[in-house]
Design brief:
Low-confidence stretches of chain B: none
Mean pLDDT of chain A: 83
Structural class of chain A: alpha/beta
CATH class of the largest domain in chain A: Alpha Beta
Shape of chain A: globular
Largest sheet of chain B: 8 strands, mixed
CATH architecture of the largest domain in chain B: Alpha-Beta Complex
Low-confidence stretches of chain A: 229-243, 404-429
Number of strands of chain B: 12
Number of domains of chain B: 2
CATH architecture of the largest domain in chain A: 3-Layer(aba) Sandwich
Strand order of the largest sheet of chain B: 3-2-1-4-10-6-11-9
Shape of chain B: globular
Oligomer: heterodimer
Distance between the termini of chain B: 61 Å
Number of domains of chain A: 3
Mean pLDDT of chain B: 92
Distance between the termini of chain A: 55 Å
Helix content of chain A: 25-40%
Chain lengths: 429, 331
């Protein structure tokens, strides 16, 4: 079949929804004569599968290799290209859509004829390009699309390739994700996902989710469960308070033991759901991850009326991309205090500048033109909120911001400070 | 009517001449001429070439070696083809590769066309893609010098991976002073001055990486010509008033090559090691400080430490020998 083919490689449900939204909004170069192939790592909803000519599952095609763990060897690329071309009938013009760096390091170098669109759906991808791309990939990237997660900020990903980021409107997203049309009720706790490298150690996660459960229950007044379930998916056997207290859901790959213990102690049933979009909560609480960012963006845009979103403590910061996501969430998503209050963040007028400054500190060699932004931002008032590592700043001859504002450390992991310094002294580890 | 002139500078490549001649034979056709320039070989190269019967072959013998630049220039002076390409004496090409190259440049109608290549190390084969990978598309040559922060076409400086319009004239001439890295300033000038180019993936050139005669493995003064090569690039950029962004790219590349060459300095004589370090230090001091700082911010700790070591003022109480000893014991 020599016709043109569009291949969308999406590793999460959110990414699949983003790619589909982009396709529907006409942001992808696929006309009516194009064959559309979706390569999904998680089960796409029925609404999405219908929009693609072919739906492939990552595990069937590449298993046991994982989408974020595979960088094919340079020597194997010609053979892999021939095999994929035959297997997927890719003989005509080819356009590949990837959802982030993993795709740019695996499928992009294999499909050497393809032009590439990068379509990102999380805040970690707002940060700078974290690695060197394989030879020949950068030049084939034609555009960068992103879910419009932060009005007023756009990704600095691929900044060095001069691709202007294009936002994908959020309006179509709830339908694509399969969000139920029920009236919002209950609390959804978003846990760490094993598919992402967990930024927090298990003990910290336990403590955080326990605190989060308590705080979330305080935050939501007791609304009777409109439709008590017959007992499926209950985490806790014990005195069940049917009709009392809000429904509590937990979405994540493993349920933290701390949550189990706390739920038992409070006598609150917690229902584990595999898909964070299959419920319609009145309050969503979680870490700075893709689901929380998407929920926050949808709530902010008014696409989920009646749903409030709050972030837990940012906790210990992991590497670059996690740090970017944590900082952006810290600046833009309301925070859930231990006492159950939801505290709105101060208005973030200079979000783009702080993002550019953070990007420069993470990739100074690749983004030298952003040094001016970094200097300007570090001299400004909101610098401490950006959690720059002090040692890193010194190595770049950048001024360390004075910690005039104490960082919001509610629901932080606590315990002994890592380096024995007072919390308000230097931002970040 | 000669369509294509292939220029092959060779010196003491007797073990590889049979493969070279087989490549040429498999690509021989009316309108193709093969100019093999014997640059003062002292082994059996000359004999083997004299006895060769390849349609279109012309052997030009230079009694005294002048280096690959002079040899190529000699070939260029004799080339009658509308297009020119190159092949090193220890590499080989697929049957029909040259016809594909000619077809590409005629169809795309641009000043030159670059192609990918296969690295051959023993029986290992590795396909190396061009950094610019939008294939079969006529592109402005100048734009291919960037991006700064990723490999670009000036990071793919292989004359034998391209076919060039003969009418580019002086742009095709090599600097005879340079015996290594002569392709660097050559490509920088080509991408700045030519109008258009294209990239075509053919996988038809095989680049031998384990040939003992390859200049890159020889540890003599010619190994330091990369300094002159990059100084030329920077001087040309300054003389032509090119924007800072190109200068930044050139300096970044220059620093990377200096660091890599010093890392493998053990194959040089002690005197040459000193000379290389001294020249590197002088070069680094000659860069605008803020530009060098900008490059170093993105460099690895290892490289930053090396440059700091190079730029440290010399200890007057230390002789070169004791300095070397101190360095070697610190490793």
């Amino acid at each position: 079949m020599p016709g043109p083919v569009l291949v969308c490689a999406a590793t999460t449900r959110l990414a699949v929804a983003a790619h589909t939204a982009a396709l529907t909004a006409g942001l992808l170069p696929a006309g009516p004569s194009w064959r559309t192939v979706l390569l999904a790592a998680e089960e796409p909803g029925p609404g999405i599968a219908a929009r693609f000519g072919t739906v492939l599952r990552w595990d069937d095609e590449f298993g046991p290799l994982r989408p974020d763990g595979w960088t094919p060897r340079v020597g194997d690329l010609p053979v892999l290209e021939r095999l994929l071309t035959d297997r997927w009938s890719l003989t005509g013009p080819l356009h590949l859509v990837v959802d982030g760096i993993a795709g740019l390091r695996s499928l992009a170098p294999i499909l050497s004829r393809a032009r590439i669109t990068v379509c990102v759906s999380d805040l970690a991808s707002y940060g700078p390009t974290p690695v060197r791309l394989p030879v020949g990939v950068g030049s084939r990237i034609t555009s960068l699309l992103h879910l419009d997660l932060l009005p007023g900020a756009s990704p600095v990903l691929l900044h060095e390739y001069d691709r202007q980021p294009v936002p994908i409107p959020l309006a179509a997203l709830p339908a694509l994700l399969g969000v139920p049309a029920d009236p919002p009720h209950g609390v959804l706790l978003l846990g760490e996902s094993l598919t992402r490298r967990a930024a927090l150690p298990q003990a910290v996660e336990d403590r955080l989710t326990a605190t989060a459960l308590r705080a979330a229950l305080r935050a939501r007044p007791a609304t009777p469960d409109p439709d008590p379930p017959p007992g499926d998916g209950d985490l806790v056997r014990g005195p069940r308070r049917r009709g009392h207290g809000p429904r509590v859901w937990f979405a994540g790959e493993t349920v933290p033991r701390g949550l189990v213990r706390e739920a038992r102690r409070l006598g609150v049933p917690v229902h584990v759901v595999a898909d964070p979009w299959s419920v319609r909560p009145a309050l969503v609480v979680g870490h700075a991850g893709p689901e929380l960012a998407a929920y926050a963006a949808l709530a902010r845009a008014g696409a989920l009326p009646g749903t409030a979103v709050a972030a837990l403590g940012a906790g210990a910061l992991a590497g670059g991309a996690e740090r970017v996501a944590a900082v952006l969430v810290d600046r833009t998503v309301p925070r859930l205090t231990g006492g159950g209050r939801i505290v709105a963040p101060p208005p973030a007028a200079d979000l783009q500048e702080s993002l550019r400054a953070l990007a420069y500190t993470l990739r100074p060699g690749h983004l030298p033109e952003l040094r001016e932004d970094a200097l300007r931002h570090l001299a400004g008032p909101s610098a401490p909120r950006s959690r720059f590592p002090a040692a890193g700043l010194a190595a770049l001859d950048l001024p360390v911001p004075s910690a005039g504002t104490r960082l919001r450390r509610v629901l932080s992991p606590g315990g002994r400070p890592r380096h024995g310094r007072p919390v308000a002294d230097q931002p970040g580890p | 009517m000669v369509v294509l002139s292939l220029i092959s500078p060779v010196r003491d490549v007797a073990p590889y001449v049979p493969d070279l001649l087989a490549s040429l034979t498999a690509n021989a056709r009316p309108g193709h001429e093969f100019l093999v320039v014997d640059d003062g070989s002292t082994d059996a190269t000359g004999d083997l070439l004299r006895r060769a019967r390849v349609p279109g072959l012309r052997v030009i013998t230079r009694p005294e070696p002048g280096g690959p630049s002079t040899a190529r220039n000699t070939g260029l002076a004799e080339a009658a083809g509308r297009y020119v390409t190159f092949l090193d004496g220890d590499d080989w090409i697929r049957p029909g590769h040259l016809a594909d190259l000619v077809a590409a440049i005629e169809t795309l109608d641009c000043d030159f066309v670059m192609t990918d290549h296969v690295e051959a190390r023993g029986t290992e084969r590795l396909l190396r893609t061009t950094p610019e990978a939008r294939a079969r598309e006529r592109l402005p040559a100048r734009a291919a010098i960037l991006p700064q922060h990723d490999k670009s076409m000036v990071d793919y400086p292989f004359t034998w991976a391209g076919i060039y319009r003969r009418s580019l004239g002086p742009l095709l001439e090599f600097d005879p002073r340079l015996h290594t890295a002569e392709d660097r300033p050559w490509f920088w000038r080509l991408y700045r001055r030519a109008a258009s180019f294209a990239v075509v993936p053919l996988g038809g050139v095989f680049y031998r990486r384990d040939a003992p005669t390859a200049l890159t493995r020889i540890g003599d003064a010619r190994q330091l010509h990369y300094f002159d090569a990059f100084d030329t690039v920077l001087a040309d950029l300054a003389a032509d008033g090119e924007p800072d962004v190109l200068r930044y790219k050139a300096i970044r590349n220059y620093c990377a090559i200096m660091a890599n060459q010093i890392k493998i300095e053990s194959r040089l004589t002690p005197a040459l090691r000193e000379a290389q370090r001294a020249r590197a230090a002088a070069t680094l001091r000659g860069f605008p400080p803020e530009l060098l700082a900008s490059v170093l911010y993105g460099a690895s700790t290892e490289r930053r430490e090396l440059f700091a070591e190079l730029l440290a003022p010399p200890d007057p109480a230390q002789t070169p020998r004791s300095a070397r000893r101190a360095r070697n014991s610190a490793r």
